[in-house]
């Protein structure tokens, strides 16, 4: 009851949002960018997925939502890996294992096994990366590895750890594809999964 009262009576205006950012120790660049914006405007206009994931990770949000963001970002770049390594299923298997874990159909042990396999694949792709296509494949592999790491960490530590890994997953996916287009898709993913209503409620319930 008390939480509902707080939620309905304290809107996340610009003043309240800036106060919350200060409490959460947000970086000065982010605070400066916010300027006059309230939370709703920030969530709709910010083009830095790492900032959005940081904010989500510092709130009381369900960490599985952050893992969902990570795995969907990783999935975007999967074709780049499979184009370069068509007979290697480790990255696809990693992504699918994380997706099954989100649904409760796989264990953390399954995730850990897939994570290890994806890390080996990523390191192998990294050592072989010379051409642009090979570099894209490498980044795709690291994106999937980060998605698995976000799942493992979300179960054992704070949501911000999952958010950190999700940010790496999104960034690697962007490197793997045409960067500007991938970044736009990544932003669409986080705003679809972590809606403004979800982030507002999570921040107000802290």
Task: Report what the structure shows.
The protein is mainly α. Helices cover 80% and strands 0% of the residues. The protein is built from 12 helices and no strands. It has helices spanning 2-9, 14-23, 28-34, 39-45, 49-57, 63-84, 90-102, 108-128, 132-156, 159-176, 179-193, 196-204. The protein is elongated and about 55 Å long. The model is unreliable at 1-8 (pLDDT under 50).
In short:
The protein has 206 residues and is mainly alpha-helical. It is 80% helix and 0% strand.
Look at the structure and give the mean pLDDT: 79
Number of helices: 12
What characterizes the major β-sheet? none
Task: Kindly state the percentage of residues in helix.
Answer: over 70%
Shape by Cα distribution: elongated
Using only C-alpha atoms, the radius of gyration works out to 18 Å
Write the topology of this structure.
Layout: H1 2-9, H2 14-23, H3 28-34, H4 39-45, H5 49-57, H6 63-84, H7 90-102, H8 108-128, H9 132-156, H10 159-176, H11 179-193, H12 196-204
Helix pairs in contact: 5-10, 6-7, 6-9, 6-10, 6-11, 7-8, 7-9, 8-9, 9-10, 10-11
């Amino acid at each position: 009851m008390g939480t509902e009262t707080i939620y309905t009576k304290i809107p996340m205006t610009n003043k309240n949002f800036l106060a919350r950012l200060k409490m959460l120790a947000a970086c000065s660049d982010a605070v400066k960018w916010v300027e006059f914006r309230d939370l709703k405007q920030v969530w709709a206009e910010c083009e830095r997925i790492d900032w959005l994931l940081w904010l989500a990770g510092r709130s009381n949000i369900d960490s599985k939502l952050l893992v969902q963001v990570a795995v969907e970002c990783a999935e975007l770049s999967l074709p780049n890996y499979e184009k370069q390594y068509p007979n290697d299923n480790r990255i696809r298997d990693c992504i699918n294992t994380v997706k099954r874990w989100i649904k409760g159909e796989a264990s953390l042990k399954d995730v850990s096994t897939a994570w290890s396999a994806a890390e080996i694949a990523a390191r192998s792709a990294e050592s072989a990366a010379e051409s642009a296509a090979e570099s894209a494949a490498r980044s795709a592999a690291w994106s999937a590895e980060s998605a698995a790491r976000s799942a493992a960490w979300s179960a054992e530590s704070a949501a911000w750890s999952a958010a950190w890994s999700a940010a790496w997953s999104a960034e690697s996916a962007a490197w793997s594809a045409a960067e500007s287009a991938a970044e736009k898709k990544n932003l669409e993913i986080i705003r679809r999964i972590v809606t403004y209503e979800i982030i507002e409620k999570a921040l107000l319930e802290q």
